[in-house]
């Protein structure tokens, strides 16, 4: 013990983390079960005509005529959360992160890979439609959010306006367009071997959408503020998406012009900023982790800065480092926001694991570490921190409660989700109109339909969670919470 006391605080912390590298409340089978459920969740969020192999059978076909008011087919895609809307920015981000999960950790999900690819394809198919239905146009939303939120009805019954919203040269949306390009490019990598013709179409469309995003610059929040704000405003602007989109297209195509674009434009698009969150809105931290691989793998000096900024991001999460600034709950959960905090936990966990993979795959030894001031944090410590966050979500927390619906002995029963909380069309074939559904929102009974695999918004800064349908900040699931967790669970299921 006297030797330990003599060590600097950081080294003590890292030693403790490393000692517990293989410590977990869960087995590989538990992680595999959670992985399967995390992918299954996306079937509960499907819009459009459901396939014959649909596994969450309490769902039915919905919104089959989306886009018809504009003479285009916009059926399909995902409802973003607990409502019946299709928002393009979070749907594209969800698709990108699902694809990235498969790209990095697909080899760790052999039994779930087809379902994982199916989840990617469901999003990519819709984004293809949205990007190719009309020249020089990207359809970015279906449904009027203000009208939708005045009703509580299952998607199979909805009769609220299915207005269609788009960006164009006159009303640009570089943020949503560049994220769509990123999603299509990332998805093209997923299908490169299994469906090369589909992959090629995805990549070609990604390039066209990116050119559109770059040529007609502007934020979609300015063009469509009344319907995208305050729901999915692009608070971070569009520069981060342009750099993110170019990075994904280069990774998918190896086209040198995109590398040149990154090198020429990175400094004006967030490459010089230290940013400490990664979400559907802000892509800077994720972009730096993605681009750091170019330096680690190919030793491209122009990309050394991305490695340095990636290190700064990681160091901000590690207690005891000189740049530590993250907040954790008493139970050890990363805490950033009072509303839907687990979205930041899942994205951070994924980035920790992806970066650990890049570090160890490209050099090992001293290179397999993060530089935090004068200290080196080994890649294993990143994995341990990610495991702590994932385990907390699955039930290793002060409340002994899983925040994944359907996983563990105790999980949320009253999630803020229309389809889950209203009786299904199988159980109640008669239509349940708009206002009649509110009886189910305010009911104290558990949701009749279990949305297996859904990750809710999560507990507060004191590790407290209210299992209350009305408390949407804590009880609402969302596709972009689950998407990065797919990759993290895949990793832990095989490690």
UniProtKB/TrEMBL annotation:
Signal peptide location: 1-25
UniProt enzyme class: hydrolase
Residue ranges constituting the Glycoside hydrolase family domain according to the UniProt record: 31-489
Family matches, as Pfam families: Glyco_hydro_9
Enzyme Commission number: 3.2.1.4
GO biological process per UniProt: cellulose catabolic process
Record keywords: Carbohydrate metabolism, Cellulose degradation, Glycosidase, Hydrolase, Polysaccharide degradation, Signal
InterPro entries in alphabetical order: 6-hairpin_glycosidase_sf, 6hp_glycosidase-like_sf, Glyco_hydro_9, Glyco_hydro_9_Asp/Glu_AS, Glyco_hydro_9_His_AS
Superkingdom: Eukaryota
GO MF annotation terms: cellulase activity
Active-site feature positions: 416, 467, 476
Catalytic activity: Endohydrolysis of (1->4)-beta-D-glucosidic linkages in cellulose, lichenin and cereal beta-D-glucans
Residue runs in coiled coils: none
Family note: Belongs to the glycosyl hydrolase 9 (cellulase E) family.
Protein name per UniProt: Endoglucanase
């Amino acid at each position: 013990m006297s030797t330990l006391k003599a060590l600097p605080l950081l080294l003590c912390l890292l030693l403790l983390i490393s000692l517990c590298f293989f410590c977990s409340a869960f087995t590989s089978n538990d992680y595999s079960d959670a992985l399967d459920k995390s992918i299954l969740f996306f079937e509960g969020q499907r819009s459009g005509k459901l396939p014959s192999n649909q596994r969450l059978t309490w769902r039915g076909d919905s919104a089959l005529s989306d886009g018809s008011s504009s003479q285009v087919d916009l059926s399909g895609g995902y409802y973003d959360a607990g409502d019946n809307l299709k928002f393009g920015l979070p749907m594209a981000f969800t698709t990108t992160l699902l694809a990235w999960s498969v790209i990095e950790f697909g080899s760790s999900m052999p039994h779930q890979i087809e379902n994982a690819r199916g989840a990617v394809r469901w999003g990519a198919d819709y984004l293809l439609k949205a990007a190719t239905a009309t020249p020089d146009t990207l359809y970015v939303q279906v449904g009027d959010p203000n009208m939708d939120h005045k009703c509580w009805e299952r998607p199979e019954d909805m009769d609220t306006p299915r207005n269609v919203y788009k960006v164009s040269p006159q009303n640009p949306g570089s943020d949503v367009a560049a994220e769509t390009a990123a999603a299509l490019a990332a998805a093209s990598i997923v299908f490169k071997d299994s469906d090369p013709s589909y992959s090629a179409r995805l990549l070609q469309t990604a390039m066209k959408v990116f050119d559109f995003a770059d040529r007609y610059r502007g934020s979609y929040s300015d063009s469509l503020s009344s319907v995208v704000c305050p729901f999915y405003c692009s608070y971070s602007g569009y520069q981060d998406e342009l750099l993110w989109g170019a990075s994904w297209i280069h990774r998918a195509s190896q086209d040198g012009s995109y590398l040149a674009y990154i090198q020429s434009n990175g400094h004006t698009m967030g490459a010089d900023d230290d940013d400490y969150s990664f979400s559907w809105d802000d892509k800077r931290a994720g972009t730096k982790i993605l681009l750091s691989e170019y330096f680690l793998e190919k030793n491209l000096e122009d990309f050394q800065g991305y490695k340095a900024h990636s290190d700064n991001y990681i160091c901000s999460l590690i207690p005891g480092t000189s740049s530590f600034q993250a907040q954790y709950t008493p139970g050890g959960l990363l805490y950033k926001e009072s509303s839907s905090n687990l979205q930041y936990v899942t994205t951070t966990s994924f980035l920790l694991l992806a970066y650990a993979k890049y570090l160890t795959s490209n050099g090992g030894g001293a290179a397999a570490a993060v530089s935090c001031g004068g200290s080196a944090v080994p890649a294993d410590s990143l994995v341990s921190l990610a495991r702590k966050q994932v385990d907390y979500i699955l039930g290793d927390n002060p409340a002994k409660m899983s925040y994944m619906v359907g996983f563990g002995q105790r999980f949320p029963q009253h999630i803020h989700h229309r389809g889950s909380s209203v009786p299904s069309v199988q159980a109640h074939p008669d239509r349940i109109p708009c206002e009649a559904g509110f009886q189910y929102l305010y009911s104290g009974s558990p949701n009749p339909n279990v949305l297996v695999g859904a990750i809710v918004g999560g507990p507060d800064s004191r590790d407290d969670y209210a299992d209350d349908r009305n408390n949407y900040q804590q009880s609402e699931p969302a596709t972009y919470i689950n998407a990065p967790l797919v990759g993290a669970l895949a990793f832990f299921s095989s490690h």
